[in-house]
Amino acid sequence: MQTTWKPHEKHGTLTAQSDLPDTVYAFPKQRKEPLTDARHVRNAVARFDQVTGVSDTDRALAFANIQKAAKYYNVDLSETSWRELGVHPQRHRKEAAAKAAATRRRNKERSGATSE
Questions:
Q1: Of 12, 19, 69, 114, which has the most beta carbons under 10 Å away?
Q2: What is the pTM of this model?
Q3: Domain around 27
Q4: In this structure, is residue 46 part of a structural domain?
């Protein structure tokens, strides 16, 4: 698979996501999972199965981009295929997050905790 990833060397002030070129993303068409440093590469690997709305071809390209970025940033990957990272996006992710937030609020109210 031909990769599209290229290192992005803009440093200094915080770079807005809209300022980044498509070539810096694991999923360039969707502009998902920027690979701007080793931490972002590890994050893209960890969240690979959470990316929604992408095809198997997009996933194959993203993994090739992740591999190239990992090599560039000296990140060791034990995975040799994108299928090892997971292919099934988490279902009902937004609902679960809303439920967790409601539980935290309820527990905070019960404990009488205040934010200071």
A1: 69
A2: 0.67
A3: 17-90
A4: yes
